[in-house]
Specification:
It is a single chain. Helices cover 40% and strands 18% of the residues. It starts with a strand and ends in a 5-residue tail after the last helix. The model has no long low-confidence stretch (mean pLDDT 96). It is an alpha/beta fold. It is built from twelve helices and 14 strands. The strands form four sheets. It has a six-stranded parallel sheet, with helices on both faces. A three-stranded antiparallel sheet has the order 7-10-11. The radius of gyration is 19 Å and the shape is globular. The structure holds nicotinamide-adenine-dinucleotide (NAD) and (2S)-2-hydroxybutanedioic acid. Residues 91-92, 98, 131, 158, 227-228, 230, 237-238 line the site of (2S)-2-hydroxybutanedioic acid.
Length: 327
Amino acid sequence: TLFRSRVAVTGGAGQIAYSLLFRIGNGEVFGADQPVILQVLEITPAMQALEGVLMELQDSAQPLVQDIIATDDANVAFKDANWAILVGGKPRGPGMLRKDLIAANGPIFVGQGEAINNNAADDIRIVTVANPCNSNTLVAKSNAPDVPADRWFAMTRLDENRAKAQIANKAGVTSAEVTNVGIWGNHSATQFPWFDAALVGGKPATEVIDDREWFENDFLSTVQQRGKAIIEARGKSSAASAANAALDTIRSIITPTPEGDWFSAAVYSAGNPYGIDENLMYSFPLRSDGNTVSIVEGLELSDYAVSKAKASEAELQEEREAVADLL
Ligand code: NAD
Ligand code: LMR
């Protein structure tokens, strides 16, 4: 079946979109036979730069791209959209925490939540990339009362991919062999890249890499601090890998999860089986049947893992306080 998705992408003149838009147009997410319509949102001062991106998209002559709409009006960008990828917002610079962006970026998600609520297609699904992505999503969701709770995702897939790459590198295998890594909590330095259930070539990662000290220290802090390390090295925050993770997120949502495995994204926590505060966007290990996404139940967390998961919950509760007037 052909779906012909309308895909809204915000922040279209920015660095992540510069990778994301072209890869969507290439059929890398929805399939090599699935036509797409790109609906790209920018702020008015960036419309000229967006014009340039648009020319390049046209010049790519991608057969799947049926139409490209560029606009500074959120009502136009989200009109009949089946997917919204919320990338627009300020990135952090050196010395900043992601949550330092909350005052600048949080308010964006009030208007965008409303515009999604009032314009998007009935099957709209939203993936937020802009930081702090968990709390930005909570703001948008709170301002979109007609959009069901299970449509909202905030991206922690880059953290999952980073964790898999670290484990693969340490074990001397490719990341394709690493499964069952789960990201718990916030896309921030308190996130918990959970390794106890991780497998390398089907064997416990903690047996293949028999070095708990490494998991609890180097591994943990490398994954938690990777975004910062990239900003320090590149002078700008991650972009191609972030776009890549956004595509991975959508593919994982719309594809049945391989038997026994899971993927991670922050979802609305109401009804979660792990006792996490019910009104947060919190990252859990998830499975999809190709349509519906659910939190993996029955995972056994050590006391150490629970303390990490709780620390990230506490940080998300603080962030929620900081945006209370936007909810
Ligand atoms: P960028 O500055 O290159 O691009 C952002 C674009 O968003 C700019 O062109 C800007 O004009 C636009 N924008 C700002 N406000 C907007 C609004 N209200 N509506 C529409 N567009 C708007 O930044 P980037 O490097 O592309 O990063 C974008 C965001 O993604 C940042 O917040 C960054 O921190 C975040 N990020 C998240 C992850 C993750 O893993 N979740 C990874 C990387 C980056
Ligand atoms: C990342 O993880 O690379 C992004 O969230 C950008 C950042 O500020 O770290």
